[in-house]
Records
---
Amino acid sequence: MVAGSSIVLAGAEPTSGTVLAGLTGASLTVLPERVLLPELEPEPTETVMAWHRNLAGGTLHGGSVTDGLVDAAVSSVLASGADLVSLNEVCEQQVEAVGARLREGG
């Protein structure tokens, strides 16, 4: 239950306040304002290598796919052995060229 919420016990008037409250059987237990509960995280099943670059494809490269940017990005991805590739600030034709080259080479 979150702070400031209300609870009704067997027809009683609602109660509210700034504390967390928990119900045990027929009794009301009021807990401190901040209760830290352990976070349950699943065990990892595999590890992946991610490769990310900001290519500034339009600003610095004018959208070109022939000025060496695509070649450099593809070479770097293949050398890294990345499972996941992420690009930002890249033009559509550059994304298509990188994708095509990666499919050919990897």
---
Amino acid sequence: MRDGGKVTICNTDPFYASVFGYSQYDRLNVGPGKGRPHPGDDGLSMSERAHKYAHRLKSGACETFRVHNPGTKDVQFKVFDEIHSQFKIIITVAPRVR
């Protein structure tokens, strides 16, 4: 995926999901404040990230967000669900076209 690309996550389970994600340039909090840029690793463990950034996504709801990569090398955007430990997505984000 290229810098600025859109990703949509939908919850098709009959109960809520608690989705969060991050890369070198973005944080995903499905809900208010989604996709906030940050300068790098926030120094938190996976569990601490989940509690700080996760937001509940209702059953049947979808959320769309953009991923960014203003650098010169590919970066990975990792998405997890605090409730469903088997849920993991890794999106490779290519640098901005210059």
---
Amino acid sequence: MGVVGVVHGSLEARSVGLRAVLRALVHEREARGLSRTAVAARMGTSEAAVARLEAGRVDPRLSTLERFAEAVGKHLELGLGDGVLRSEGRAGDA
């Protein structure tokens, strides 16, 4: 299972980081050929909730992002830092 995203820093950086994590999760969903409906079923939620999440219309809980990541075969990795923000997958993740 791969890693999706790391969120660090200020509230503004957190918001940017969350958007980057969400973009990475959407990319993974699409790359794996998963529909929003399939991801929603894996997460135990509705397709509409996944659509709102992907569109950035909600401020997701950490547990929601973790469930989304698991639903697309990834896991979420968080860390503390000094303002460096990145969103990445690791080599060899599939």
---
Amino acid sequence: MYGLFLKVQAHAAIRENLVRAVPESFEIQELLGLVYSAQSQDAKASEHLDKAVRLQPGSVPARTNLAANLVRMGKLDPAEVQFKKAAELDPKSSRETQHPEVLHD
């Protein structure tokens, strides 16, 4: 069990070193947000996903992931803003997600 703890700590240090090395990397910010989200560390996930969205405001997946994370945190109003912005950026994707029947038009 202690070995697993050490591995987790080492991975956390690597992640944080990546952020310090290239803080303006959209890919690293988004990836860290997804990793933290998968670990149910929603506050850290939100921080990185928000940074990813600021770095690439046109990224529909980043906005959608941020919105989902905000929902889990109970922050429904900001989540709605992100979902709506994602839908504005890619209306077809939004329609397909919300209404699969449009795929057959």
